[in-house]
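TODO from last week: model 4-hydroxy-2-ketovalerate aldolase.
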Amino acid sequence: MNKIRILDCTLRDGGYINHWNFGRDTIQEIISNLTVSGIEIIECGFLRDVPYQEDVAVFSCVSQITPFIASKKEKALYVAMIALGDINPEKILPYDGTSIGGIRLTFHKHEWAEAKSTAAILKEKGYQVFVQPVGTTSYSDEELLGLIKEVNGLQPYAFYLVDTLGILYRHDLLRLFYLIDHNLDPQIKIGFHSHNNLQLSFANAQELLRLHSKRELILDASVYGMGRGVGNLATELLAEYINVNIEPRYHITPLLTIADQYLSSIFSEQRWGYALPYFLSAVEQCHPNYAAHLLKKETLTIESIFKILSLLPADKKDIYHPEMVDKLYLDLQNCEIDDETSIEYLKKSISGKTVLLLAPGITLDTHKGEIQTFVEREDPLIISTNFISREFESDILFVSNRKRLNAMQKEIALQPYIMATSNLLEELPSSVKFMNYSSYLGEGQAADNAGAMLIRILNKAGVVKIALAGFDGFDVDSTNNYYINSFKSVIERKTAEQKNEDITRQLRLALNGIPYQLVTPTRYGLQ
């Protein structure tokens, strides 16, 4: 069974999680432990034409990799990846046996002519070249056969089936594998790189291991499944499966050492693994960042997200275009109306009053006493923002968020005064006071933050003074984020920090020129 090889891509594909900033010693230890474990092919990181930093697994010259593999194992192949265009292949030093022996070249469908030329240069320099078309599943049979024919002429070390979107079920996998296997030169190895969007990476790897093929097979994996978003096939799982079901070959303890000593701390800061955005992207066969971007807005139902993803043009699905998905999002939300009557009604309601805005932060519970004291002293008009408070009776319920509206359906009919943005026209009765959605959007990220939109509405209605309670901001500990349990969800540190920064900017701009006070503490940068 020597025809099976594991390629570990922890330092390269896993590096998307921490921007490849593992630290010099950790890079060294990961490579060392992978070597001791018996992994046949070890990917050390990216080759890019950028300034070199020794703590980062991104290299501008193959000689920079040499110190990390000084004690390399004779039977192991050490490789790095080039994403086409990231570095001129002429800058790559010829292979001399002291550094990596292989280079993985990844490219998009329309880049093949340049990729073919680059691969030929790298091969001429003495490297084992891996040809890896991004999103192999997006190729028609005719396109794939045409590519294979040219790859045969190139004679690389390996040709890859790349399931970029993680959408391959068993029958799809086998059909593509046999198509490639039947037409690819027998001397060229077949590699399989999968993403775990549908939790099928391990199952698909096992399926390929069961095949009776003369072809040499390379299976990509990363320790602890480390990888962007949903992650990858876990190296330790694959190695143990081969040990138990095929032949004893790998030492598992060094792999577990990598996970325990070097990756678990990264995982605690920025998680990877199964998540809805990656399931949605697999179902709609689009780049996972589209679904992740929409889910992070926390304003849409799953049905609405599916609708937006289904509207993505076919030729834009594979590569992420944030501006395009934002336009589709705003198109879905936007419904132009004349809201002057609603504004006049609001003017009368708030005339001469301080307005207390309630957001669903946990401080509504932890600082309940301060809020009650404020209400008794100021007798404000109270507006709840996208939730119904258990403790404080609101004079007005403001709704701008489809997802939150769904959560309030059973209680919303009991609210005496509902004010909503016009993106919810079809979901609410005509008795609701609707405000024109697009008129109160901010600019940039978090443009549709409910609190900031409500403040802009109040400003137009001539508010005298605003008080804020429950505008807590985001904490990585989800239990500290919301007053209502059903709103709580896991959030990564960087996401929390970015949300706080974006919403702070929106709130500051909306509050500019309006007297306001904070009744409860906040992580937003408000004074």
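Done. The CA atoms of residues 209 and 369 lie 63 Å apart.
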